[in-house]
Amino acid sequence: MTDGSGGAADPQRLAERVRQGDLGLHELEDHAEPETAATARRRLVEAETGADLSAVGGYGFDPAATEGSVENLVGGAELPMGVAGPVPVEGGAADGEYYLPMATTEGALVASVNRGLGTIDAAGGATARVTDAGMTRAPVFRVEGVAEAAEVVEWVETNEDRLREVAEATTSHGELLEVSPYVVGDSVFLRFVYDTKDAMGMNMATIATREAAQTLETETPAELVALSGNLCSDKKPAAVNAIEGRGRTVTADALIPRDVVEARLGTTPEAMAEGNSRKNHIGSLKAVSLGGNAHAANTVAAVFLATGQDAAQVVEGANAITTMEVREAGLYASISFASLEVGTVGGGTDLPTQAEGLEVLGLAGGGDPPGSNADALAEVIAAGALAGEISLIAAFCSRHLASAHEQLGR
User: Which of 373, 376, 312 is nearest to 345 (CA)?
Assistant: First the structure.
């Protein structure tokens, strides 16, 4: 490629053309290879801001492979990655011992999760199950009034097979599971739910729903206003996801003998159960929190970043309930995620370090049967989050939280 002057593309020349208004930042790939375009953007930003982007330019991926993941590429952002574990997980899809890759800048987090995983390991491991799966997209349509709304709802209920055929024609993997209508005055929302196999599936669901929405407009009085009407609900705290689920609904639990609690956590099952109740349940209720947990999003975020998940969907990943109760054998602990949105193919999972993170888990790429790798990833994340909950509640009960952060996370 040339830079427009007839010669080989030169990053400095391209940066000058952008500065002069001859080119837009987004047009550089039309005049240069992706790596040259990224270099030109760094030169421009460095000149305009005085920043040194040499570290940003030291990325280890192929710039051409980022198409569909980022625009106006300048380089890469690095995060420290640690590992916790291993821990045995007996799941519906996960089966074996797993190391948990965690990318984070929060000191003491990996150590805390590692302590929790060691405790679960000493107790014989965690059990985990995905109990529901489905990625959603919910367009909103305009109608004249409630009579037309009822007409649209009736059409959807009697023509779901037709919508399924149209939607599934857009994908070789996705399946439309159900369509649920919601009416608010002259607005009709349709919440489409898809089985997206090993993909997180947001793009798949969006494209499939667009085709179904066009069919609905042709056959009913409904007019599409927005392909996403926020009843999905994506990347926002929402009770509909807490109740109906989105992505994977997954629970992990463990029964920890009393002597293990006392020896490894420095507290008792009774203190753990009370601490969890007062903090995670009563405190969360008083705060009107969606979910009741100590810091589940910490583990979710760290594993998401390490394995190429959509980081903004940590919002839904924070929607979890932690329970602890005293049993004759010791402490029963569980964590239940209503809407953990994960995938092992597509998106950021193909980037080199993120792919290696999935390889650490043995869950890179598509599973056999399809969907099993994403199910296993959800189960292992749930087990890791449970470990984080156990460790943090124990730190509160033994009053070690502040000293741990003083030592590891200042």
Answer: 373
